[in-house]
Amino acid sequence: MKKIAVCKTSLVLLSVALLPLLASAQEKATLAISSIKPTPSLAAAVSSKTIVDSHVQGGNGAAKDESFTLDIKQEMNRVIESLDGQLIDRINATRKFDVVGRSDLSDVMKEQDLGASGNVDAKTAAQGGKLAGAKYLLVATVDDFQDYIERAVFEGTGRSATKRVFRFSIVAKIYDSTTGKLLESANFQTGNDAFKQIQEERNYSVNNGQLSDEMMVAVSHTMAEKIANRLADVIFPAKVIAKRDNLITINRGEGAGVAVGDVFNVFALGEALKDPDTGELLGQEEVKVGKVKISEVNPKVSKAEILEDTGGIATGAVLRKMK
């Protein structure tokens, strides 16, 4: 009985000792996200209401002009509001980050006017991230929004056609809040082509040029997914987690910016790179060792066929999508 008691006690002590190690192994990167807002210049330039002319066919076959009011500012605010929530959802879907302390971060952003300007310096970025208890800070601002109906009249025929013009652009900046260093700054855009594709694929209607609720969510979802995937790629690039014969498995699945047919270069990680002047770690040396093509996408992982291999494709190798 004493031996059993001693064994049980030893197991309990061992479990307690392992808890910190298990917790650290399961920890995700902590991320603070600022509320998305338009730049001051865009907010001032977008008018609340615009009168749009349209050329329609009357009941007796005669053409007549009509006009309607399009609230551009309301449309922009609806897209931004939807994107604000969609971005958190898409970042959580990457399974790489814990979004923390947004309420505290909002106070810092408001005080520094960062949510509107997007101008974050190293000192303020570090302050915002530390206050929120986050390792990384994401600041996103909308710098362009166009949504209107354009009418073209064909001379000599008396006929006309209307075309919707839609453009939306957002700048995302990723900071290391412990140092205030800017890790990545990228511009994401969508426009008529992407908008038309969403409209046709999902059968969404547009009334008088205005976004329906479903279309607004679709546009926001697509943009949020692009930002979330870029964020994950910068901080946690896709990696090989298994290799068997001519196939590899990578740690990217559905909704993570991976699609069947995508081609990636594969890099083996070498020595740590350190700035000789400052001693700052700049990452690791990357040596290209091959090329792969995605053949299967699953909920959490994807499979890829090896197209080229110089002998260095192995577990832990990093993948970079070819442009």
Concise overview:
The chain has 323 residues and is an alpha+beta fold. It has helices at residues 2-26, 40-45, 72-93, 102-112, 114-117, 122-132, 192-202, 213-235, and strands at 29-33, 37-38, 50-57, 63-70, 97-99, 136-154, 159-176, 181-190, 240-244, 247-250, 263-274, 281-297, 302-309, 318-321. Strands 1, 2, 5, 6, 7 and 8 form a 6-stranded mixed beta sheet that branches. It has a 6-stranded antiparallel beta sheet with strand order 9-10-13-12-11-14, with no helix packed on it.
Characteristic terms for this protein:
323 residues; Rossmann fold; Thrombin, subunit H; globular; disordered N terminus
Can you describe this structure?
The structure is a single chain. With 323 residues, the protein is of the alpha+beta class. The chain folds into two domains: 206 residues, Rossmann fold; 82 residues, Beta Barrel (Thrombin, subunit H). The chain is built from eight helices and 14 strands. The strands form three sheets. Strands 1, 2, 5, 6, 7 and 8 form a six-stranded mixed sheet that branches. A six-stranded antiparallel sheet has the order 9-10-13-12-11-14, with no helix packed on it. Strand 3 and strand 4 form a beta hairpin. The longest helix has 25 residues. The N terminus is likely disordered.
